[in-house]
Amino acid sequence: MNLRLPLLLLLAQASLGYASTDDLAYAGFLHSDVDGRPITLAALHSDYDIQVSGDIASVRVTQHFSNPTDRTINARYLFPLNRKAAVHKMTMHVGDETIQAVIQPVKQARETFAAAKQAGKAAALLEQHRPNMFTQQVGNLMPAQTISILIEYTHVVDKVAGVYELVVPTVVGPRFEPEPAILDHEEAGATHWQIDRLPRYSPTYGIDLPDTLPPDRLNLSLTLESAVGISNIASDTHQLEGFDRSMQAADGSTRMARLHLAQGRSQANRDFVLHYTLGDAGPSAGVLTHWQPEEGGYFSLLIEPPATLDESATVPREMVFLLDCSGSMRGLPLRASKLFVRKALTGLRPSDTFRIIRFSDSATEFSIDPLPATPVNIALGLTYLDGLNGSGGTVMTSGILQALTPPVPDGAIRNVVFLTDGYIGNEMELFALVGRALGAARLFTYGTGTSTNRYLLNELARIGRGFARYFDPTRTTDTAELIATQLAAYLNAPALVDISIDWSTLQPETVYPREIPDLYAGQSVRVTGRFRQVTNGIIRIKGRTGLSEATLNVPVVLATDPQRPAIRQIWARTAVAERMHNLSVPMPLRKPAASDDDLVSQATDLGLRYGIATRWTAFVAVSDKVYNVEGNAESAEVGLSKVAGVSSSAYTSASSPTKFTGYGAPEPGLWFSVIGLVTTFSLLRRRRRRLSPG
Predict the structure, then answer these.
(1) In sequence order, what are the residues at sequence separation of 6 or more whose Cβ sits closer than 8 angstroms to the Cβ of residue 402?
(2) Across-strand partners of 219?
(3) Would you state the pLDDT for residue 179?
(4) What per-residue confidence (pLDDT) applies to 378?
(5) What b-and-e string marks burial along 548-584, b requiring 16 or more CB atoms within 10 Å of the CB?
(6) To which H or E segment does residue 220 belong?
(7) Burial class of residue 407 in the structure, from the number of CB atoms within 10 Å of its CB (0-12 exposed, 13-18 middle, 19+ buried)
(8) Which residue has the higher pLDDT, 217 or 445?
């Protein structure tokens, strides 16, 4: 790979008044040769302003595109947002103009953007490719000009293991995109849906581009507030400062906290994750409402499981550990996965059995049959585990089929623990496969990495009636040991199952999710819906914990409160997500029954009516003024940071955008482990024969 830095970069630096190589991140554009192909890189920095009220986040992210060169460019930026983000507003600032973007069907938005570029106008186009993956295109960015794009979105903050977890992804990790499998006609239904291909991946610092120029493009500030008090505010991913304790409560918690990054601007190479707890508000459920004139009301109901669990219904478990051993997992991620499995294996009950499956280009298994969790078998499993290494592609379908296809042992429940970074592009294919093959099993996903594919892992866990957890492999050894032990302990039985709601005299409409998932200790779920009548009442939430029935009565006031527009946006985003869930389900099993075209049409209508970005709706902004009179423009990419802790083998070359580099041969360490295990099993078999009577 040939890389050269022309004089243009230095001239751009001088024109902006930068004096040191540390400032090259803001110096505009880098013209490089990548494998003999010229690439223009756009400079960009992003500012996040986050407001969190209880467990609802409202985020404003401003993307600043600058052009200190003497050429007009059309820039493109591949970036992530939270997987639950309801993107409801976009504003473009160029020169003395402020343009409010409009929402259009994606094809129309692309045509609007293309026509604006052709006319020489400044323009911006925001598209969603996955719920957590977006592209921003900026047209006719003139020399010495800056175009700023403000994106606004809301989402519910997840509760994980009793702690609220705010996640702000900052970089899209690499993706492996295998050829889509051909679905059986009867399983797929009367029609075959097409899997949208991923957008092309951008050049990456340290891979396609010089690793000496990783742009420190991230700035982040946030405000936390709650009526019940906030405590235990901490981030394991970024250093924070600026706590405001002026509203401190009597119990030592604070009603408001303002924070920002301690180091100022930061590299965008890992998720920003913040944990906090809210003071005990008493009930295990509560309702928020919002009234929209001419539409009616929207509500959001929070449900948490009982604090005291009935463990009398403990049954034997078949624990299936499914490890991603592809090239992207090489090194730290796979080491962290092994640490978790080691902790989980040593914590198995005597009544449990276990299997270990590894996959990359194909899947192989430690043992043909589930093994009893005896000390000898666990020791053999640990030996096999130690021999695993990472290489090759990420053909997840092979591993999932290996895990779910064999029959479950009599009298047991099957728990599949899937450990991966999620770096694939065929998400819909995986969702459909798990929906068809899951049976009575439960699927738990453990994301291992600093910027994992949370959309994939959370959706797989939802379909699999389990949960998703995340593990940062760059943590210190002692911290990693503690986290692995805690995560392994979460694999006990659900805290509350078979959840239903008796709405009594209340008459809600279009309530989501249609099927409330099982809840594990430390989790919560939000049920959102609409209402037409302003009324009071008591709803009854029912469920089962172990062998005991559990009931919770919740007073509800459905009022004309116009102060929470985020509730309306979250409802619309959840309604779109329900359609996307259904697209991954074989047609005969869809509830309610709908064709692919119907589901896409419904999701598109929701996006247009509520002004939110979806796979089928996009935001586009066009200036009134003509900026590019000559009409010539050069295409430019925004270079991405390499994800912290991820092996270089996870990334594609510039000439092969849809395949990872790496190799698919079996790992040498695995062969040695297999030979050792075969020898050990042979010795054990001979020993049993000598000890058996007759």
Answers:
(1) 322, 357, 359, 363, 365
(2) 47
(3) 66
(4) 96
(5) eebebebebebeeeeebebbbbbbbbbbbbbbbbbbb
(6) strand 218-234
(7) exposed
(8) 445
